[in-house]
Amino acid sequence: MVRKIKSHSLGKLEIYIEPAHKVRHGERTLFRKLFPKSVYMHIIIEAKKDGIVNASAHSTHTSFNSDGKMISYNVESDNSRLNMCVELIDKKEKLQDFFLRHKDLLRSKVVIYKEVEFWDIE
Questions:
Q1: Spatial separation of the C-alpha atoms in residues 47 and 102, rounded to whole Å
Q2: Per-domain residue ranges for the chain?
């Protein structure tokens, strides 16, 4: 039984962010003032609302930011400054719209776009 792989062109948006970055806008209930939502969670929630095909967050073990300080994961210390990657996958136009809609939130973040192939079996 021979099957062919059918491929589609999609895009991948990689957003590098620190878990310590919090959302300071939106509904400001007492709970949200005391415990603001992480930007990476906000991005994933907004991606779901916008109908993005796939969104995920990946932790890193070691990273450094624009300040140049290298940080490594440690069970006994604060890892909130350790970079993570939020990855969104969809068509390029949809990712561009998402980026522009959330430009204020993404302004100081490292954001990379890559073209990728989505595979399916015919």
A1: 10
A2: 22-63+78-121
